[in-house]
Structures are given as C-alpha cells and as structure tokens.
Amino acid sequence: MAGSGVFAEVIDGDVFKYYADGEWKKSSSGKSVNIVNPTTRKTQYKVQACTQEEVNKVMEIAKAAQKSWAKTPLWKRAELLHKAAAILKEHKAPIAEALIKEIAKPAKDAVTEVVRSGDLVSYCAEEGVRILGQGAFLVSDSFPGNERTKYCLTSKIPLGVVLAIPPFNYPVNLAVSKIAPALIAGNSLVLKPPTQGAVACLHMVHCFHLAGFPKGLISCITGKGSEIGDFLTMHPGVNCISFTGGDTGIAISKKAGMIPLQMELGGKDACIVLEDADLDLVAANIIKGGFSYSGQRCTAVKVVLVMESVADTLVEKVKSKVAKLTVGPPEDDCDITPVVSESSANFIEGLVMDAKQKGATFCQEYKREGNLIWPLLLDHVRPDMRIAWEEPFGPVLRLLGLALLKKGCVFTKDINKAMLISDAMETGTVQINSAPARGIKDSGIGSQGITNSINMMTKVKSTVINLPTPSYTMG
C-alpha cells in the first residue's frame, strides 16, 4: 500500500512529504495540494505545497551536492544507479498502486511502467559508463597551414543542476529517463513531478534515497505550478531543463534563458496506409497506437491517412477491434480507463461535438460517464474541424485525407514507397509498419533517449597542450 512499509517515512498523517537534503520534509507553508482520483473523482492523496523559499534552499543544496558528486568515480555512480533500479523493481506494487489511483493507469500497465523504469535506470548506468568513459585526442596539423604544435584532449563534463519535469501519463518512467542520465553524467537533479502522478514519483525517489545517493543530490519538490512553476524554470540555479508535456513547454522555453533545453511536447502522429499494406497489421497497430492508456500518450496514433481504395476495409477491421476493447476502472485492468481529469474529458468532448456538428462520421456511438470516455473512431474528418488540428489526448482516433505531421508511420509492403514517403515527411521519426515514436517541429526541442539525454546533459571540456616545437610520431 502506498505510504506504508519502507515508504512509511514519505507520509505525515494524510499528506505526503517532499524530499530535500536527503530527508522527507513538511512544507513551511502548512498547505497541501489535492490529487483527485480520475475514477472516483474524489481526493485520493495530498502532497506538500512547497514555497519559493524552499525552492531556493533546494537549489542551493543541489549546487553544493553536485560539486562533490562530479568527483565521484563513474563506476560508483553506475553502481548506485543499479542499486536504485533493483529497489525500484522490488517495490513495484505500492508504486503501481499509486499510478492506478492517481492517473487511472490499468493495473497491468502500471506494474509494467515501474519494472520498465528500473530496467531503464540500469541500462542508463551501463550506457553512461561507455559514453562518458571515453574522450578524444586531437592534433593541430589537420587544419591547413598548421604544424603539429598542439595536442587537444576532450571529455564530457556535467552541466550542474538539472531540473526534470515529467508528465502525468508516465510519471515514473519519464522521470527516471531524466534522472538517470543526469546522475550518471555527474549532475544533481531537482524533480518537479506532475500533480497527477506526484505520489508515484515520491515513492520512486525514495528508492533512490534507499540506494544511498549523497544528501542533496536528488530533490523532489511538490506544489502548485502557479506558485512555484515559473520560479523553478526561471531559477538562476538551474543549468538545464528536461521537460515532457504539452504547450507549457513552449512557455518554459521562452522564459528559461540561455540554458540547454530538452522539450518533448505533443504531436499530430499520423499513420499513413498505402494500397498494398497488410490491413490486419495496420488495424492491430492502430488499436495499440491509438488506444493504449486511453490515447493519453504523446506518441499515440491520432490521425489515419488511408488510400481510398482500402479505406472502407480498414475501417471495418478497426471497428471490429474497437468493439472488443474493455472499458472500465483501472483496477479491473481494462483497456480503456478514465482520462486523467474532468477538464481533459470536457476538452475531448468539445472536440468530438465540434466534429459531429460539422459532419464527421461516428463509427461508434459517443459515450461518456464522468471521466470515462468510450473509444471512438471518427471518419471523414475535414481540416475545418478542430479535431483535425487539436490533439485530443484521449481515446478518439480520426481518419482524414491531409494532416500537418510531426511524427508518424507508414504501412506498406513496398520499401521503395516507404522510403520515398519517409524522406518527404518533415518528422522526427518515421516508423515503417509500426506505430509512431518521436517528433520534431512544435513537438519539442532535442530528443529523449538515454544516449541523447546523456549528451545533452553534459558539455565538452577541452584541454590544449601547446608544444614548443612541432612533434610527429615517425612510426
């Protein structure tokens, strides 16, 4: 159960504490933030409403802790990450429970997220040793007119304090995907979890605490975005920001200043289906890509672009699969569970009603109970409909003939056609015969992934040795 057993010190009464300087603390504000269960629509948990003064203190401590952590041998950093990963997987049950109650993640998927997060931390430890354990040796006579009078040694060094802001939909997995690269690279880490998902994040952070990381190296600040959001992202003590979420990331990027940014935002993920595609494969991927976790994924399939000659057949195949999706509470491990909040459900419904008013074809009856929206496939969607351009972030998939793409996939048996279309698409990633992954354009800045994150959270340090006379190895 959340907040019990090894996690007992994380909670005080009915309010979960925040984590700073190696300790679980209550905020001096005396206030808390409610976390509403999407299924019951009642308050499930409470977390501390931290103050700006507490943010200042955390940043001060993080800066000091980073200096000594940067001197910690690479193998030791990796060893602690492996230990944290093992503890995380050992205590997957209470963390998964929090995911079920905070964000209505289906039970099986909640456990998978925690286990997968532990695996990611271990992989990052190994990859970090490989990436950071090597540098480069450069000589000066490669440039015209120069003699070999300079030797240059390069290595990757930490940036300082990394601010990590994960989203509600994968609060544990997308938190550790920022935490682990930051730590292996020698940075300190300040985590601002989403409100929905904060308790799961706090439990995850406790696993790092139990692993024995130095005091002050990792902090987890909870609170209202309106009170500490901008204060965190604009704080002069932050040297790098890694954010995953929606349009908030655009605002952050405009305010953050001259620091490295990693922004993974939303997208209009398109699935392009050609005449020769395996329609059974396409239908299976549309269901998986469009309706997993009720479509609340930044890489979910949102738009299907299908050739007219196979459109009707594909629609029937998708409709038959949609009919088999189970709908209900996450505790029952249903395929479709409530979306994260009432405001999200209202937004989705607004898009659907606009499409209905403008003549879209509903392949299923629209049905909603509270935050629970039944899966819906919309055909004959036109560009003048809001849903053609606005991301529903819910269990609604639309078919149309043209879309502004940010990431996508192509289904065809002709590799030549696949490559031509892939090259023509201005997207970050194009999947051939599978659901989409990462994107570009307004979908973000930079790319996530272990290697990219480690490289982004470091900078190159060069040491140049000047020789009195040219020196060449004769062999």
UniProtKB/TrEMBL annotation:
Going by the entry's taxonomy, the superkingdom of the source organism is recorded as: Eukaryota
Q: Which residues form a coiled coil?
A: none
Name the SUPFAM superfamilies on file: ALDH-like (SSF53720)
Ranges where the Aldehyde dehydrogenase domain occurs = 24-462
- Which InterPro entries does this UniProt record tie to the protein? Ald_DH/histidinol_DH, Ald_DH_C, Ald_DH_CS_CYS, Ald_DH_CS_GLU, Ald_DH_N, Aldehyde_DH_dom, ALDH-related_metabolic_enz
Cite the active-site annotation: E264
Q: What is its EC number?
A: 1.2.1.9
Checking PROSITE patterns in the record gives: ALDEHYDE_DEHYDR_CYS (PS00070), ALDEHYDE_DEHYDR_GLU (PS00687)
Question: Which Pfam families does the UniProt entry name for this protein?
Answer: Aldedh
User: Which UniProt keywords are present, listed alphabetically?
Assistant: Oxidoreductase
At the top of the EC hierarchy, this enzyme's class is: oxidoreductase
Q: Which reaction does it catalyse?
A: D-glyceraldehyde 3-phosphate + NADP(+) + H2O = (2R)-3-phosphoglycerate + NADPH + 2 H(+)
Similarity-based family: Belongs to the aldehyde dehydrogenase family.
Q: What is this protein called?
A: NADP-dependent glyceraldehyde-3-phosphate dehydrogenase
Record organism:
Rehmannia glutinosa
